[in-house]
User: Fold this.
Amino acid sequence: MKKSVKIICVCMAALIFALAPAFAFAENSQPKATPVLTSISFKNAVIEEKFEPYKHDYTLTLSDSKVTPTLEDYSIDGEADIFVTYDYDNAKHQTGALVTIQYESGSAIYTFKYKNAEFFKESSNNYLKEVKCKSGIVYPEITRDRTEYTIYIPNDLTVLEMSAATEDIGAYCDVPSEISLTSEQELDIPLVVTASNGEKRVYAFDMKRTEKTSEEFETMIKNGTEKELVDSEKLYTNPAFLIAVLSAAGSVLLIILLVRLVKRLTVEVGDGDETEFFD
Assistant:
């Protein structure tokens, strides 16, 4: 009887051992849940309806009917990137915000239509309020007193996605949603903002590749350490830093030349061909 029980136990153990990889594979092969946007809020706007992850159309009431709303806060259930663009009608009037979350297997778009946007008043306001790049860092922060900026990107980036928000909701910025790049290409990107009265302002964005890969770059952005990346890039391109490096290199070179000169003079002073005074 004991022998039979022992045999059964051995057989059960062997069966469990044989089926273990299958169970592990079944667990690992379970499809991952599709990421969803679980909450979101905007600066200068309030969402009229209660936000729900699987509802994609909403209404925004603007706090100031002349000011473009921008992303304030959000949360995503799952691994996904978020990107905000703006919708326009045929007259190039801004009519709403489009929020896209992008994940490994696809994307989802949430639409926020403006309820009280002001279009009928002409304005000369042609300032940018914000420029965002997926897998890119715009430096410095957009302000009214400058029109030239740098976009830091990963060294392996081949598609740059951009969005721009104007200060005035009646202004229009013709921003390319996607820019294709070769493996080492760095572009100068002009953005033109046209005010509702037709006045234009041109901004220049100088693209610069960093030493980071896309994966490293996105990790730094998610961890909030992108400032460190920008600071390191600024250090390497800072004229004072370059002058210091060149000065140090020049000093080292000068020391090497002096050492060689001293060695040569020492050899000449102790030349074996000279006549000895004392035998």
